[in-house]
Amino acid sequence: MYKNITSGKYEFLDDKGSFRISKAEDTSYLYFPVASEKGLKCSVTPNLGGDAMVNQETFLLEPVSVENLHNNKNGRNFWLYMDNGDVWSAVGTSAEQESKKFTMEQDESLVSAGFMWHTATRTSNQYGVMAEITSFVPVDLNAEVMSVTIKNISAEAKVVAPIAAIPVFGRSADNLRDHRNVTSMLHRISTIEEGVLVKPTMSFDEKGHRLNNNTYFVLGFDENGGKPESFFPTVESFIGEGGSFSKPRSVYRQEKGVSAGEKFDGVEAVGGLKFAKTNLAPGESVSYTVLIGVTDDEAEIKAVAERLSTKSAVDAELENTKKYWTNKVNVDVHTGNKEFDEFMEWVAFQPFLRRVYGCSFLPYHDYGRGGRGWRDLWQDCLALLFMEPDDVRKMLVANFGGVRMDGTNATIIGDGLGNFIADRNGIARVWMDHAYWPLKTLLLYIHQSGDYEILKEKVPYFKDSIVHRGNLVDKSFETKGNYQYAEDGEVYKGSIIEHLLVQNLCAFYEVGEHNTLRLRGADWNDALDMASKNGESVAFSYAYAGSLKELSMLIKQFSVSLGIDTISIASELNTLLDSYVQLYDSVSQKKELLEKYCKLVEGNISGKQTAIPVSTLVTKLMEMSDWFTNHLNSQEWISGEKNQGWFNSYYDDSCRRVECFDADDAKTRMMLTGQVFAIMGNVATDEQVKSIAEAADRYLYKEAIGGYRLNTNFNEVKMDFGRMFGFAYGEKENGAVFSHMAVMYANALYHRGFAKEGHKALKALSDASMNFNVSHMYPGIPEYFDAKGRGKYPYLTGAASWYLLTMITEVFGVKGEAGNLVIEPALMKEQFDEEGKASIALNFAGKRFTIVFTNSSNSEVGEYSIKNATLNGKEIALDGARVVIAREIIETLDDSNEINVEF
Ligand code: G1P
User: Fold this and answer.
1) Where does the Glycosyl hydrolase 94 supersandwich domain lie (predicted)?
2) DSSP letters along 310-359, please?
C-alpha cells in the first residue's frame, strides 16, 4: 500500500514542511502537537495516544509522560466490528494488533502531518480495510476533531459496526496520583443524542475544593450529521468486567449500549459512541467525526455540534486551520538543500508552539504547571518579532512590568499580557541570567523598528514579599496588586531605560569571591542549582559585561535619535552609579553598595526622580563594561595545547574553578556556555575566538549527535554544583548537545565574523535533526540530542527562536539597524542551489520582501562581496560591503518587494 514510501525517512509534501513517514508507530516516543489558540492543547501519537488539556486543572484526556506513550492503551480509539466477528482498531490499539507487531501481519501505517494537523493512515490486508484519521483543533475552539474515514479495500462487501471510544479524564493532572479514585466519584456523566458529557461536581484540591464549571464532551456524527445509536459512557460499561482498553468487552461482544438521556454518577468515564452498522461495497468509504473538548458554557457544546456535524463542514474547517497556521509562519528560506528548507519551516513554527504550550504540556515536558518562564518569554519574542511584529511592542512593554526594583523579576508568567504570578509560597529563587534577556530582545526590536520611543514608556515594577534580590522575605508585605508603590501611595512607574539600568546595574554588583557574578539559584542552565552560596557564573559575567556596553551604546543612540540630553531615573538608583573603578576591584564594597540600594527599595520608594546627563550614563556604563571585560579576560582564560584555549565558565560552591586543561584529555573540563558568552559579550578577542573554536572542536564536537555538546564528562557527581551532575553523561544539561546553547554558539561565532565555524554548529544540528534513523523524531529542532543522537523534548525549545534569528540576521544577514534594512550575508558556498541562488522571504517594516542572492562565481564566504543590488528592478547604491535601505524608502514601497543581491 505504502510501498513507494521509503521507510525511516520523511517525504515532504509541499514547501511548508508537511511530510509523511511510513510505519511511524515503529518508533517509540513519537508524538505530534495539535492545538488551538483558544487553549486546548493536544498531543497525538501514531496510534492516537497522547493527551489533551487546557491547563493543569483541566485535563480532557489522562495526562501522559513519554513512557506512557507505549504502555497506555486508553488513548483515542475507533473500533470496527465486522459482520464475520472480526474486530479491528483503526488506531492500531487492539490486543491482536499488539500481538502482530514486528510480524509480517502487522498493519501497514503512515503518518502525514503539517502545522497543527495529523493524519494517521492504517491498512489491514488481512481484514481488507483501511482507515484514515485526521486530527486537528479549529483555531477558535476548545475541541479536537477526529475525522475518520473507513474504506473497504477488499473484493467483497462488508458490514461494519463502528465504535468510537475516548476515555475522559476530566479533572486536574494532579489527580493522576493524588486521589484518582476519589475524584472519579465527583464525576457526573450523562448521555445526550450526540454523545457523552462529563461534568464533575467539584475540582478537588485539599487546599480548597471548588465548584466545577467545566463540562467535558465526546460527540460523534456520521458523514451526514447522523448521530450515534447508543453509548458506553463509563469504563465499566465499555471494557466490561475483566476487559481492557485493548480488548473491550462491549466491542468484542457487540453489546448494545445505553441510549441518550441516561445518567451515571461517580465512576470513570468513556466517550463510547456506537454508530449504526453500515454496508460497504468493495472500494466504498464511509466517514465519521468525533469531537472531544471542554467548555464552561454548555450552550457551546450544541454550537460545536452544529458547526462540525457534517464531513463537508469538517473538511472546510481543516482547510481553514491549515491556512491559519501556514500563514503565521511567514519566513521562508530557499537554499541548495530542500530538506533543510523544510526543516526551517518547522523551526519557524516552533516558537508559536511554545507560546501555545508553554514549557509544560507535551509528553516529554512532564513538569511545571503551565505558564512560561521569564527567559523563555523574552526569547520567544525574538522569533515573533519577525513573524508577528504588530503585537510585540505591547508585549515587550508589558513584560518589563515583571521586573522588581531590586533587579530580579517575577519568574512565572501566566496567560495574557503582564500577568505575572507572584511566588505563592514565598520561595525565592533567583536565576542570575534573567536580567540579561530583556535587553537582547529589546535591542532586536529597536533595530528592526527604529522605535527608540519605546525606551521612554513608563512601566510599573513588580512587587511581592520577596526582597533584597531573593535573600529576604518581607512578612509584613500586603499585596496591593503586586506593584511597587511610592511613598505617596501611588504605583511607581519608571521608563524602560530605567528598568534596564536597574537590571544591569544590580547584576554588576552581585559578585562572589572571584569578583565575578554570583550564580545564585542557577543561570541559563537550570540544572546548576546546588551552588547558591559561593557559586559564580563567569559565563553570564561575560554576558553582562557585553550588555553594559550595549546598554551604553543604546542610550547614546537613543539620545541622538530623540535629541535628549538627560534621563530621569529613580533617585534611589543613584546609589548604584555612585562608584568608581577602584571600587569595582573590591568584592566587599560592591556587596555593600548593592545592599545599600536594596535597603532603599525594600518597601515603598521615594517616588522622586533625578535627571542624569546622558553623557554621564554612557561613560559610566562603558567604564563598567571595560573594567569587567579586562578583569574577566585576564583572570579566566585557560590555555590548552597548541593554539587551543577557552574561558572558565563557573566557580562551584566550594569556590573552586570548574574548568581546567589537563594533558590527559579525559581530565580536561570544558563547558560551552562560557565560550558562547565570552564570544557574544566581546570578552574574547578574535585570536581567542579561534582558540576557543579549536578547543571546542577537540573536546565538545560530535557530528553524528548534533555537534557541540554542553560540556565534557566530569565523571563526578558534583554535589557542590548542580543536579546536572546527577544526570547520566549525555542527557539534558549534562553534556548533551543542548540545541539552545549550540545555536547561541553559532550565533556568537557568526556575529564575530566566524561564519564557517558558525555554519558548522548550525549544520550539525539540522543534519542530526533530519536524520530520522538517529534522531527518531519528526522534523524540527529538539531541546537536545542524547548520547545516541535521539532528539529529546521536541517542539518546545528556545533553540528554535535562536536558530531562526541566526539564519535571518547572520546567515542571510538581513537585519534591522535603527529601523533601516541592512543586508550583509554570510552564506556558505554549499548553501546556494545549482544555479548559484539562495533566497529568503520575510516581512520587514510591514512590507514583504523576497531577497534573492546570486553567487554566480560559486565563491566561498569571505571570498565574495556584494557587487550590486536591485530593489524591485532598480539598482541601489551599496554602503561599502552592505546593502542598506533606509526606513523612509521602505515606507514608500508596495506590499510585496523583491531585492536581488549579486556577488
Ligand atoms: C530549557 C528551558 C530553558 C533553560 C534550558 C537549560 O531549555 O526552557 O529556560 O535555560 O532548558 O536549562 P529550552 O527549552 O530553551 O531548550
Assistant:
1) 55-310
2) BHHHHHHHHHHHHHHHHHH---EEE-S-HHHHHHHHHHHHHHHHHHHHTT
Q: What is the mean pLDDT of the chain?
A: 96
Asked if 287 and 250 touch (Cβ cutoff 8 Å), the reply is no
pLDDT in tens, 363-382: 999 998 887 789 998 998 99
Rounded distance between C-alpha atoms, residue 406 and residue 426, angstroms: 16
User: Ligand 1 atom closest to Cα of 359?
Assistant: 8
- 797 CA distance to ligand 1 middle (Å): 7
Predicted TM-score (pTM) of the model is: 0.97
Q: What is the reported pLDDT for 66?
A: 98
Q: Atom 16 in ligand 1: which residue has the minimum CA distance?
A: 797
Residue type (1 letter), 829: K
**CA–CA separation, 530 vs 521, rounded Å?**
7
pLDDT digits (tens, 9 = 90+) for 149-197: 999 999 999 999 999 999 999 999 999 988 999 999 999 999 999 999 9
Check if 799 has its Cβ closer than 6 Å to any atom of ligand 1. Answer: yes
CB of residue 492 inside a 6 A radius of ligand 1: no
In the reported structure, the alpha carbon of residue 490 is separated from the centroid of ligand 1 by a whole-number distance in angstroms of: 37
Distance of CA 385 to the CA centre of its chain: 15
Q: Which of 73, 114, 71, 64 is nearest to 91 (CA)?
A: 73
Cell reading at 731: 542527557
Residue nearest to atom 5 of ligand 1 (CA): 525
The reply to whether ligand 1 has any atom less than 6 angstroms from the CB of 457 is no
Ligand 1 pocket, 529 CB below 6 A? Answer: no
Asked if residue 373 has its Cβ within 6 Å of ligand 1, the reply is: yes
Q: Are 832 and 856 in contact (CB under 8 A)?
A: no
At 206 the pLDDT is 84
Give domain 812-902's CATH architecture. Answer: Sandwich (2.60)
In 739-873, at which residue ranges do the beta strands (DSSP E only) sit?
784-785, 791-792, 814-817, 820-823, 837-844, 847-854, 868-871
Tell me which DSSP letter residue 784 carries. Answer: E
CA dihedral 641, 644, 647, 649 (to 10 degrees): -70
* Cβ atoms within 10 Å, residue 180: 14
Centre of ligand 1 to C-alpha 334, Å, is 29
Q: How far, in Å, is the centroid of ligand 1 from the Cα of 796?
A: 9
Contacting residues for 102 by C-beta, under 8 A, at least 6 apart: none
Q: Which CATH class is domain 640-799?
A: mainly alpha
Residue ranges, comma separated, of all CATH 2.70.98.40 domains in the chain are 11-328
CB distance 271 to ligand 1 below 6 Å: no
Q: How far is the CA of 526 from the centre of ligand 1 (A)?
A: 7
| 275 CB within 6 A, ligand 1 | no
Question: Is the CB of residue 524 below 6 angstroms from any atom belonging to ligand 1?
Answer: yes
pLDDT at 412 over 90: no
CATH of 11-328, one of 3.40.50.720, 2.70.98.40, 3.40.50.970, 2.40.37.10: 2.70.98.40
What is the per-residue pLDDT across 481-508, written as a single tens digit (0 to 9) for each? 899 999 999 999 999 999 999 999 999 9
Whether the Cβ atoms of residue 201 and residue 183 lie closer than 8 Å to each other = no
Q: Sign (positive/negative) of CA torsion 168, 172, 173, 179?
A: negative
User: Is any ligand 1 atom within 6 A of the Cβ of residue 250?
Assistant: no
Domain with CATH 1.50.10.10 in the chain: 640-799
798 CA closest ligand 1 atom index: 15
Q: Where in the chain is the domain with CATH 2.60.420.10?
A: 812-902
